[in-house]
Structures are given as C-alpha cells and as structure tokens.
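We now fix the convention by which a protein and its fold are recorded. Here is one such record, which you should read through line by line:

>
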Amino acid sequence: PIRLDVGACDVDLEIRKTINNNTPNVNSNVTFTLEAINNGPGDITGVVVEDLLPNGYTLVSTSATKGSYTTPNWNIGSLTASERATLTVVATVLLN
C-alpha cells in the first residue's frame, strides 16, 4: 500500500508503482519503481510518499531522482507543475 502526505495544494498528483518481474524466484532481486508526477496546474510542497515493501522482500538499495528515502518514507519535498520524480527500490525475494 502507498500512503501520500502533501501540504496545501491545488494540483493533480499522480503516483505510479511498477515492478520489473511479477513472478520472481526466491533469492533473486526485483526492482520496484515509484514515480510521482505533478500534473498541475500549480506547484506542490511537503510531498511524502509512504511505501512499505511487501512481505517476503528485504531491502537492498534505493535511488531517488529527487528527495531522499528513509524506510518507509520517500521525502520528495516540492514538485513544480509538470515535474516528475522517480524512486527505484531494489529488493531481494525471500519467500514465494
């Protein structure tokens, strides 16, 4: 599940989440990609996306194009109109 916290705003904020392999093997790595897209019309501040790894996965690494990630929060901060930010999360599969 994804939870989103934002400051006061008048925008259309879109969150997308994908995985690179829907049927991974145990002990293999998968990559989750979260994308935050400000569809406008205004800027947004105070953006925090909470995203927990599903049960059966352990965190390997993260990389964000904007902001920082501290489990389970991706602290993006602000997004101007039409701006996108991406978080990549690599995790190891522990269970099928």
